[in-house]
Amino acid sequence: MPIQSKLPEVGTTIFTIMSKMASDYQAINLSQGYPGFNCDPHLIELVYKYMKEGKNQYAPMSGVPLLRERLVEKTKKVYGVDYDSESEVTIVSGATDAIYSAVTSIVKPGDEVILLEPAYDCYAPAIKLCGGIPVYVPLNLPDFSIHWNSVKDALSDKTRLIMVNTPHNPSGYMWTKEDLENLAQLIVDKDIYVISDEVYEHITFDGRKHLSMMTHPVLKERTFVCGSFGKTFHVTGWKIGYCLAPEEMTREFRKVHQFVTFSTATPLQYALAEYLEDEHHYLELPDFYQKKRDLFCEGLRETELLFTPAQGSFFQQVSYGHLSKESDFDLAVRWTKEIGVASIPISVFFKNKNDHKILRFCFAKLDEELEKAIKIIQKSKLF
């Protein structure tokens, strides 16, 4: 019998396509956003330790209590914000789980959800699966800042949710205090919730501080803050993250989460709880990644490509529209095949595949790999 697809427009993601192509053509993979190096060996030892201790059965649905407590301590230390570990913190199987569960707990058929595009590719499908209607608001180019008048114009009596992302993927833009205040003013007297994707919270550059939605009193009371241990500690394959939200929102969130993944790998949770005791493991990340960003950008300056160093995340965008009219998708494919460097065309982050002649490179790789990629780009006849 034919299946009537709930997501007929969805196919294989660009990240899978480009990573496979990078493998097929033995290209340097600067496309998919995952670290090209291993995590701290001590963290692996901690996982082994808790496996040997027998922490191998189901964890509580909301997460191992000790990890939730450690996360509350970290949140207070970094942001000065209090959450209750029992009723407002949930450990999940990756930020995608957190985002899907949050959307499903709030959005009903016919509800409108505002997306700031370019937007990460898991947002819109979650909305559509709930019967919601994505409403797209373009960010300002070239800096990818928010056009708040456009957001205001997009609001309607059907708006149920606004989804935000800082540091932003793919651009690296980081929200300012003015951004938080503008969002708060728009929704303070409306029944509108916020889902905030903050997986790159500790990957920030040039002295910038990540401003979480939780740091604004109005936003904290209506925001699901979604984070990722995988991004922070170079273990994206572990698929482990968290969601922080007020008690009433968390209650509804958990009703969904328990039937999505129920619980997350137990020994990983115990290992991360112990690993979080040392704040240096996350406070030193900005310096670690800035060296990689600066290394990559220094090499880009020797090319004709245009760029502004990313404010956060582990992605760097480059613009080539002044050099070629070739589509970003075709260029990304051609460079992977011909010069051996894979990237992501950012048109895939737009609903209508708007082509702004921009490619996204992931610099969360070994220095020698970044140096090799830069030399290839510098020496190749690109256009």
Automatic annotation (TrEMBL):
<dbReference type="GO" id="GO:0005737">
    <property type="term" value="C:cytoplasm"/>
</dbReference>
<dbReference type="InterPro" id="IPR004839">
    <property type="entry name" value="Aminotransferase_I/II_large"/>
</dbReference>
<keyword id="KW-0663">Pyridoxal phosphate</keyword>
<feature type="domain" description="Aminotransferase class I/classII large">
    <location>
        <begin position="27"/>
        <end position="375"/>
    </location>
</feature>
<comment type="similarity">
    <text>Belongs to the class-I pyridoxal-phosphate-dependent aminotransferase family.</text>
</comment>
<dbReference type="InterPro" id="IPR051326">
    <property type="entry name" value="Kynurenine-oxoglutarate_AT"/>
</dbReference>
<dbReference type="GO" id="GO:0016212">
    <property type="term" value="F:kynurenine-oxoglutarate transaminase activity"/>
</dbReference>
<protein>
    <submittedName>
        <fullName>2-keto-4-methylthiobutyrate aminotransferase apoenzyme</fullName>
    </submittedName>
</protein>
<dbReference type="Pfam" id="PF00155">
    <property type="entry name" value="Aminotran_1_2"/>
</dbReference>
<dbReference type="GO" id="GO:0030170">
    <property type="term" value="F:pyridoxal phosphate binding"/>
</dbReference>
<dbReference type="InterPro" id="IPR015424">
    <property type="entry name" value="PyrdxlP-dep_Trfase"/>
</dbReference>
<keyword id="KW-0032">Aminotransferase</keyword>
<dbReference type="InterPro" id="IPR015421">
    <property type="entry name" value="PyrdxlP-dep_Trfase_major"/>
</dbReference>
<dbReference type="InterPro" id="IPR015422">
    <property type="entry name" value="PyrdxlP-dep_Trfase_small"/>
</dbReference>
<keyword id="KW-0808">Transferase</keyword>
